[in-house]
Amino acid sequence: MKQKSIIISVLAAGMAAAGAASAQTIDSVKGRNELVCGVSGGLAGFSAPDDSGRMQGLDADYCYGLAAAILGPNGNVRFVNLTAKERFEALASGEVDVLSRNTTHTLTRDASLGLNFTYYNFIDGQAFMVYKSLGVSSALDLDGARVCVQSGTTTEANMADFFRTNNMSYEQIAYDTSPDTTQGFENNYCDVLSSDTSQLASIRSELSNPSDAVILPEVISKEPLGPVVRQGDDEFFNLAKWVLYAVLNAEELGITQANVDQHRGNADADPAIKRLVGTEGGMCKLISSKLDDACLYNVVKTIGNYGESYERHVGANTPLGINREGTPNALWSKGGLLYAPPLR
């Protein structure tokens, strides 16, 4: 019933916002000189403020990149922190231009909310985290456990399927926000915390004693995470996709934040590089006549390629320590699943 009520409220908001979508989002962003981006705002590695108050993370980088494509390098972004319950209605109603908030692409969300998923900036799966003192080494040992989860997420349904399939019982303890869920786990209101593995890594990194907790090996779901936009504005939808495709293509082509200017000034560069940096082919104008030829160059200039963003925020040398090698988040050419259409 909770899921149905969320869908109904989002559909109503989407109908009310139909005019907003037809007004063209790129025009709106240019008019206010600011992209409004919905994020978690409290998930280290994905979207959380640093000590100076600047939003940082893989999801935040996407917002900076999209703003750069429309407004130029380092274009203005206003971040709106949204709970899992709030996020879809906030997007459908026009409160935010885009949702970049570790959101799973599912059929129900794709087909019934009036929203379009773009592509994936992190391919994940749900798992379980426990304190080592519990003495549990497998999710199959969790019969009768109290499990903390964040409400309004795919976590709840996945967990129900897992426990039912394995003939186990559990007690769900739900919270509205990730910080509240973490606090419940830290205060021993539950035995287990369940979420996407990336979120568990983020939460563990901020525990008072991260080494006391362990993520169990079983991954029980597919969680392809990526930005979401409203339906009804294909121009903005295409741009939102190609911001992700651009940083993936940039990584394939060896274009980085440090060398993108060198490539842009090289008359003998590979044609694919010229198309990416905007000196040949008019790629950005094909997306929208309102964009500068350098729109995708501006993305890479602002946030670097996908690999740079990944390693900066969630990679092996960060507190999250998520090694990319051999995972779905590696490029297709290195055994992963990330694959961008060609720039031509």
Give an overview of the whole structure.
This protein has a 5-stranded mixed beta sheet, sandwiched between helices. The protein has a 3-stranded parallel beta sheet with strand order 4-1-5. It is globular and about 65 Å long. It has 15 helices and 14 strands. The protein has 344 residues and is of the alpha/beta class. Strand 9, helix 7 and strand 10 form a beta-alpha-beta unit. 40% of the residues lie in helices and 16% in strands. The N terminus is likely disordered. Helix 4 packs antiparallel against helix 14. This is Amino acid ABC transporter substrate-binding protein. Keywords: Signal, Transport. It comes from Candidatus Amphirhobacter heronislandensis.
Task: Give the arrangement of secondary structure elements.
Elements: H1 2-16, H2 18-22, H3 25-32, E1 35-39, E2 48-49, E3 55-56, H4 58-71, E4 77-81, H5 87-92, E5 98-99, H6 107-112, E6 115-117, E7 122-124, E8 126-131, E9 145-150, H7 154-165, E10 170-175, H8 178-186, E11 192-196, H9 197-205, E12 213-215, E13 223-225, E14 228-230, H10 234-253, H11 260-264, H12 271-277, H13 283-287, H14 295-303, H15 306-313
Helix pairs in contact: 4-10, 4-14
